[in-house]
């Protein structure tokens, strides 16, 4: 690097003499050790089988460890500004090697997707294309404190980071690379103030630190052709940052959104899209990719085999030799991303959810002691929801069975008028699909701490409330407040005869997301008369849904439970 620091890397080459079109993986796990002893035995954060498929397709692969991670030089800092310039320097260096054609693409998901955004924001000349999946762009709003509810995911993530550094240390020891092994082991042993859990706890509101470590500005500078992948029910990085594609140039950006898991990126179906994209922009093949619809939504995505429910890894433990198959694909026209498609449903007395507006003087829903939401366990995703029993005391609102099909997609907003008998309360809104037999399928969750309800009016829209995350605004017990609960993007087909339901709970664990309990958690009253309406806003489009309803519980990350009809 320019300051003399060295980044660890490893390169794998396909059969042949080269030069080769080259793809770079750049993260803080064990990217610099691809091909090493641990990697070859499956002890890696990378996908060995995705890498093998890319090699067999003629690409050279280069894995690079970020500054301050694994055996690379430097101090670790979460979302540090140097990630971008370092990544750009690595891209340029790779492009100058005799075994490279000089056109570099970047691939991988999660931290590997974050590394792509940092690098592409620097606009390195040799960067031909990026394909980020499942990223974090705004660390505060996306995962650190979604809706203002403090999330302890970062501490769990830190343990996983240390585990992957252990993989790299083992490889270094086998290779007798003692300096690298010592660097890694010393780094693993340190759990000081720079660890992600400590840092995120220290910055629960927007401040100079969180602003400096957001990637929003970097994303806004990206000009490289981009294929963005997002999974709506991702409970590692979360689904909110999938909207980053809206900040990129429309003519060179493609996106795929689907129900699914954190590592659906390695699936055979996504891989086919990755190959077409890289073949066009990195190899230079005229394969027609540029004519691909820019925004595609996969509905009813399921595996061709049983869902084991284990952490991500839905494609046969990342091998990708099974198929993730969408029931159907909807190519989103630009007109379907306007406010003209907003669908408003009003919360009404007796748990109704209706397009009819509230009556003057309509009584509020009585005080309710909100139970905790069913725990959704990422290591066995379906059990928490499948085994839960809908509590009779919980506030729930349901539509009548639909007379027509409704295709719903994008973010949503639950706009509430509430009063609470304490100085604060945390809410988790769960949106579900209820089939004619009463089976209730999980679709998406939204979170809000009432004291974090202040909005940025310039960045908020009808469907996306943008929370300021600055000074908390305590609630006066018993006094009416207006608030908006952001519901991150999702896509779901509500077929004729089915219904849509929302539940209000206290937050519970979702995957590896675990939330700090709010010491002030008063009972809640939902107001919904004509003067103080409460309503749900979604985006829908009239569409002739071409498939029969999937079996309850068959969709990726959309578990089903017997519910109330």
Automatic annotation (TrEMBL):
Give start-end of the signal peptide: none
In terms of NCBIfam families, this protein maps to: CocE_NonD
Task: Give the molecular function GO annotations.
Answer: hydrolase activity
Alphabetical keyword list? Hydrolase
Instruction: Note whether 4Fe-4S occurs among the keywords.
Output: no
Whether tRNA processing counts among this entry's keywords is no
SMART domains tied to this protein = PepX_C
Entry protein name: CocE/NonD family hydrolase
Boundaries of every Xaa-Pro dipeptidyl-peptidase C-terminal domain copy: 275-537
Gene3D superfamilies membership: alpha/beta hydrolase, Galactose-binding domain-like
